[in-house]
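Researcher: Structure for this, please.
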Amino acid sequence: MSDDLLRHEKLFIGGEWVAPRDGEVVASINPSTGKEWATAAYAGVGDIDRAVEAANDAFRGPWRKMSGTDRSNILRKLGDLYAANAGRLAELESRDNGMPIRDSRAGIAGHAQYYYYYSGLAANISGRNIQMDPSVHVYTSREPVGVVGAITPWNAPLQTVMWKLAPALATGCTIVLKVAEQTPITAFELAKLADEAGVPKGVINVVPGLGATAGAHLVAHPNVNKISFTGEHRTAQEIMRGAAVNLKRLSFECGGKSPHIIFDDADLEQALNAATHSAFALCGQSCALGSRLLVHESIYDTVVEEISRRSKNVRIGSALDPATQMGPQAHSEQLEKTLRYLEIGKQEGARLVTGGERISNLGDGYFVKPTVFADVTNSMRIAREEIFGPVVGVIKFKTEEEAVNIANDTQYGLVAGLWTQNVGRAHRVAAQIQAGMVWVNTYRYLRYNIPYGGYKISGLNRENGSEGLEPYLETKSTIVNLTGNYADAYAQ
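Model: Predicted structure, token format:
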């Protein structure tokens, strides 16, 4: 291993940096180059046990006793530190998962707002009084669910950690972060900031590792009270089975095959801008991208021609180049998956308009050409299965009803988009689409105070907004007898 590698060869458990007990130290690969750029500690089963024990100790100790106002102050301090270090975090994110630096900078610059938002909510978590008869006083209180196991993906490492960490801390939970083994680096850096912000020891524990070992053990651990997971729905199904050991609380965000609908009365220039961006941003590696482009028959040929032309102008290159608009696939396995789906699309009879192959003149990086398939039907695998690559399938429709039917003919239900200048149609279609978020004449508008999550196999519960607190809270009802007398059928 080179001496100039960034080294994170210890886990963060109980507020200390400790060597893996039964895990290992592995290389982290820069997907823009295909080369090793950092080393990272992986947790084994014993390390997960240590992290869970530390989280439980912290939950029973100072963190549980801390007021909402004190937690709020810590979250705000963490937000301040995050903002001050956003530039460096963005560079590390781009090296680790291939996100173009222009995207990582823009996204991470806004992350501090999530910590500020939940710092405000932390001091205002409350129950309610329930009016009964004068003999009793009835009220509810909200309590943290306990130790949270957070399992996050490789496509947006800091964002998905933030979406779980901020509400967990706001409610008074402690957390064990099992981040994706492909992209562990920024979670270690975040642990440093949390420690500097005054988060008590054991409240946050960072233990990257393999899903089959570290992840599975975290899910089945009897001293973990909740799992929050972002990733593939089949993994979520396995988590549900493993979590049955103590009926853990669960929240999932499990991907999508999102419909992006362009009606014949749309502002076509704006719709094409959004359609191109939502097809190829982040090299297609986002659950919320519009990978199914539904286009009215009267403008179908125009849209196919124009999005194909624009795809050829996408600037592809190293994630650290500020001019890059689309970087590489995040790791070699995802590259191979995308290449398989390109062949599937051709075999299914979709018309390959542009792209459809790996880029070979950019060294050993994991680059794929932006790909447009036309004449796609909604029964094809490339229209039904999540590819997670820069691949868009264009589907023709005739009527509003048909567009809605195609949009909903999927096992997913995360997000959707539609373009029309008819206000009535906008509301009418949005109301019928089975998705947790619908964008009208915009796309990928995500903010800290807007709940995000999916219908159907796209997930359970919501992240962001005040709704994002709910999965981390239990409700307790307390009934106090005010009379001093107890009388029922058994009283003597």
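Researcher: Any notable elements?
Model: The radius of gyration is 24 Å. The first strand starts at residue 6 and ends at 8.
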